Amino acid sequence: MSSLAIRDLHASVAGLEILRGVDLEIRSGEVHALMGPNGSGKSTLSHVLMGRGDYEVTGGSVTVDGEELLGLPTWQRANRGLFLGMQYPVAVPGVPVGELLASAVRSRGGDASALDTLLASEATRLAVGDEFLARGVNDEFSGGEQKRMETLQLAVLKPQFAILDEIDSGLDVDALRDVSRRVEAMTSEDDLGVLAITHYSRLLTELRPDRVHVLMAGRVVASGGPELADQLEETGYEGLAAELGVDALSVEQPEEADPFADPGF
Ligand code: ADP
Ligand code: MG
Q1: In the chain, what percentage of residues exceed pLDDT 70?
Q2: Of 72, 128, 150, 237, which alpha carbon lies 20 to 30 A from 175's?
Q3: Is residue 231 one of the residues assigned to a domain?
Q4: What separation in Å is there between the alpha carbon of 235 and the centre of ligand 1?
Q5: 122 part of a folded domain
């Protein structure tokens, strides 16, 4: 049993504070859904957890089993068991997924010899055709193909924790079912812990969350069971914000003072 703990996390980009004290804890085998309006900081959280360079962490901690990850480069966080499925996956022209995974496995000191067999069986399970195994990763892939490819990498690498940023966006019904079932199976078979960022409760009917959290303007403003996602379908983010007395939904650049404004005297 492992635990990914995020405590009072603050982070800024280009001088604007985006994460304003995020607290979340995910244990092995649990699925946590993170919902929230556009611009509330969901993708920022995923990048900060993985250690992307353009975000400045200004406070708090991120630990796996008590070991601090902040300050470690991305590859070391991956070695500690973290995986990020990106909202907009990066294309790697000329590098097929098998090569990418082999180097990931070797960098952890693992044995890449059984990789081909595993990759083939996962590709079948996720309906990823041979053509997509041969091409450069995500090179000219459709949205749905990219998300199947992200899930394929997740299934082969078997991390301890997966942060999935809108893995359901751009997916048709069949792809959504394949992807969410594969992830759901990993939570029970491999004890994978999941932070699933999503807008849709459709994903959550397959990938049943233990907890649902709502992020607004860089803070978790509500946490609850799956019924919170249903409530959001009814009220929308505006409605929930009104109910909670939260005034900012998204993170916005503060308006600059207008030097020509009427000073009022
Ligand atoms: P969400 O994923 O919830 O829609 P994001 O985390 O993508 O929200 O963005 C939150 C806010 O941070 C937005 O106002 C966005 O413009 C800003 N932001 C995020 N990343 C960057 C960046 N690299 N440079 C500048 N602004 C950014
Ligand atoms: Mg986002």
Answers
A1: 95
A2: 237
A3: yes
A4: 24
A5: no
